[in-house]
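Researcher: Going back to the complex we discussed earlier. I've cleaned up the inputs and rechecked each line, so this should be the final set. Can you rerun the prediction on the complete assembly and write out the structure?
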Amino acid sequence: MNKNLLYSVTALFDTPDGIIHAAEAVRNAGYKRYDVHTPYPVHGMDDAMELKDSKLGFITLGAGLLGGAGVFAFISWVFLAAYPNVIGGKPYFSWPAFVPVTFEITVLSAVLLTIGSLIVFFFKFPNNSHPLHDTPYMKNVSSDKFGISIQANDPKFDEAAVTALLSSLHPLTVAPVFYDEEELRHTWTTFDPKFLALLVGVALFVSGSTYLHLNKLLYLPPFDWMSNQNKFKPQTPTAQYDDTRMMRSAPDGTVARGFIPYPFKGMPDSAGKYLVNPLQPTSEALALGKTKFLTYCSPCHGNFARGDSRLRGQFPNPPTLHSDKVRNWPDGNIFHVITEGQNIMPSYASQVSREERWAIVHYVRALQRAFNAKESDTQ
Amino acid sequence: MSTTQVPYQRKDLPASVTAFGAGATAAGAAIVALTFMFDHSRGLYNNIIGLSVLASVAVGALFYVALEYLAGAVWSTPFRRVMEFLSATVFALVVVALPLMANLHEVFHWTHMEAVAKDPILAGKSPYLNIQFFTIRNIAFAVLWIFFYAMLTRFSRKQDTTRDQKYTRINIRFSTAFMPVFALTTTFFAIDWIMSLEPHWFSTIFGVYYFSGTFLCALAVATFIIVSLNERGYLVAGLGKDHYYSLGTLLFVFTNFWAYIAFSQFMLIWYANVPEETYWFIARWKNGWEYVSLALIFMKFLVPYFVLLSQPSKMDGRKLKFIGIWIFLAHTVDMYWLIMPNFSRSLVLGWQELGFPLLIAGLITLTFVFKARKENLVPIGDPKLQRGIDFKI
Amino acid sequence: MSTSAIDYTIDHPAVAGTPSAASIDEVIAAPIDSKPSKGWWIGLAITGSMLGVGILSISWLFYKGTGVWGVNQPVGWGFDIVNFVFWVGIGHAGTLISAILFLLRQKWRTGIARFAEAMTIFAVMCALIFPLIHTGRPWLAAVYLFPYPNQHGLWVNFTSPLLWDVFAVSTYFTVSFVFWYIGLIPDFAMLRDRATTKFKKIAYSIFSLGWRHSNRHWQHYEKAYLILAGFSTPLVLSVHTIVSFDFAVSVIPGWHTTIFPPYFVAGAVFSGFAMVQNVLIVTRKYFNLEHIITINHLENMNKVIVLTGSIVGYAYAMEFFIAWYSGNPLEQFVFLNRALGPYAWAYWTMVTCNVVFPQLFWIKKVRTNIIGMFIIGVFVNVGMWFERFVIVVTSLSRDFLPSSWGHYVPTAVDFGVFIGSIGLFFTLVLLFVRVLPVVSMSEIKAVLPGAQPSRH
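Model: Rerun complete. Updated structure for the full complex:
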């Protein structure tokens, strides 16, 4: 172990004036690799050492602009391209509402990158094996003394000359600092097997405990009380009723609130005979009918009810609604088919309300009229 | 507890300044007179712009004087007199308000009794919005402002000769009393003269919005004057980058503050989308006014923000002078943007709009010259003066 | 007499007397080097018990679900958001002291900045509890809180104020923490160099990152500090502004009002300063820091309290005036209901504590009286808690439709979680004063008399 490599010659001072004077003297003597150590930043020291202005601000500016522009672009992409969604009746590109998140991310990225580069690039930290650590010199400048240290690797360095220069500045003490090469050379590597093993261990622990929590623990009592509630479920048998079914139908003669029973179940002719379209064929009714027709009917019957949708050929073909049969049906019959279904067409009663069904009837009538227009219609 | 003598030699301002002041006043007054002749209403709306800008300079400067006493700030003591001179424009304020007081009926919808009678909302507001109470309020504002102006500057002037620290103490008392007075008077001044032009519209932040621009405007005008005077040696020696930096920082901070308040007001009204509030912004986003809105963002936020962002430019006298004038103009545009859409729903901009800004600039200059002729440009008796000159960041 | 003693020609010293730099080390490091006293243990037992109450309440909440809270239709926001806003508000003083006062070059901040920053971090931690637990099962809610594309390819709603909150508060926490840590590095190095045990030496070495007090580092360090302060200032405004957006972007009468952003920020600073002032009064007495955290510092804090308190009072008045002025019957009703309705007691508590009592700080005697200011500080915190309660609960319990009005009564669990958050806060404060320097040593040394070269 070679303990005697000279790192620098140091001098300690008692007053801020003394250290400023010393720094100027050392700078004027032409030394480059020297440093001043003070328990707090001493005003005017940067000028005394002729340090250039810190370039840290440029990193901040760059990081902030990049972060802000990036997140604004990202949010815009989310709302304009990835999943356009109308929120609060606002346009997709609601830039005022993007401002808060953009601002926060600007600050966050600027601050984190500034501090990250300050520590890693400007300070080259963490570094706990510097020759000055653990020396009486460091202990003094840590508390209340002001120190200057001229490094041995300065091109002009000469131990005797440096000691003489520093001694001439009325310091408290002048002392050389030595370092142990072996100790400094010991570096801590990322690929140290022990470290890798530790990483694997941490990863296994975190993933394992996460898995256990989310997939096992939450399904164990008592944490499962929300999923396993003490109640009867529709498909579970019960002893309460003779037929052991938990799922009950409504008692005879009762009707759910807001529900009007359909009186012509299985009676298309009666429906045609007795039902009258309660809606006037206004433009609103036709617009409603069009919307509902295009949503529910057109997938099979086609956009113009000609039975020509792209499903043609894959099923028994959906019929055209322009056939004489349908044209001659009374309104009630069309209503009945929508309500009850026909052949393979299912009931649409649950998807389309009564009023909407009647609006669809109007719209179908309008389509029929349009395809079989009379001379008089053009006048 | 005697103060050290600061070497200060009073010099008269050059005649060119007086000439500029007189010229601007005369030209402004001429344009104003023509405007009133050709389009009386337009002249009145412009008059409100002039009134609100001048009030910003006068009361904003007075606020700064009080703030300095209260905060115990020292860096601005060497140029507090500039603020005091600017606040002397409170007298001009009365003159500028006179044509309006005589013609309230022409600009304020709520003075039309037959319209108020038909409108339950306006009828509900009539205990506040009526000509009598309006007049009393505004006379009270003027009296309060002039009173505090007289007190704060009187003791400051006395100190020039007596150098007695007790005047600082008295002024701190007056400043304390002025703070709540300032908050309430500027708020209701803004509500009365600007917000009530659109009597159905309301926004709780409006007073704060006006305050943010007010202080910024006063500070900007003062910055221009301070830097100009200091460069030509009218103030004491030893004022430099550190003082400029503090002025620049304050301008920067209040630019951001104004943007923050303006954005908050816009954001909340835009987001909630309540029709009774949004129409105010919609009016400023249609028929040409959208260009003024955009120009306002550009003038009052983006330009000052980027000019003042870097540390060296906050210490740069040339940039500070430029931004001082710029912010004064931006504040005028801000007032124009607040007020003129009530005159016309589609953009109006012409020579008529030049009259009042010119007149105001002239009045400020003349008041300043008038005060500088009699008084020191530096509060030489202030106990904080030496500390202020020695100020280092 | 005290007023006439002020000499305006001289600068107020940031510390009392002329302590030496070495004695500063001794005094500030003393609590870290010595064994805790009986009083500290008693304090920890009390705060620990409160924390225990909180943990029990939260466990019960996790087990049973958020139904154990008093919230229900129509008051869907209760103690959770009240406490969240309260704690975030407390956190605002720290950044204000460390950033804004730093930019304004107020030397008196040095004695209190570290403490205030620590309290910011602890307060934000307390605040974060509430949005986390209000999801009921926070471990399952992670995907809703963070921008994480779910299986539908749907992103979180970046235009929702509640999401802004997530970004604002987490950014605030991160930046405050970084700010605090950067300030601690030189002190860690100093503690490292005076450490007597091997464990302490290793621990402080790690935390100090190898700081050497080098001027070449100080130069960048000071720049970084300035940049951090510059960013923290708008950040601290943005946080409570965004919290106020939670309410103000809605159309609920009493919530949708444009003055909310500055009003919330002022209120936050108000309560934060009161809390910092309270804790500092106890700490300076207990650790003999009266010459570093002087009565002058406390007086300055009280001035900030009276200023922000008056701004809050202005906002109350403005809200009332504009509610009347607007001519909107719903707005008018909400404000009358606040003052005269079922929660009038909360409203008048708020007005008394926030507007009336702090005005006593205009009197210098009160401002410099330790007992007096302590009591007013407590009042301010009570008042500010009630302010949030009034805003949240009165508006929701009496909204547009009288048929859907309701009354909110918090449950024992609500109180338990709140007590727990108070316990957490003070437990962290007690631990902090034992393990970290409560005053920034490197900063206080820099403002001691004679600490700077005579030319500057």
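Model: Worth noting: The CA atoms of residues 10 and 149 of chain A lie 4 Å apart.
Researcher: Good, that matches what I expected from the previous run.
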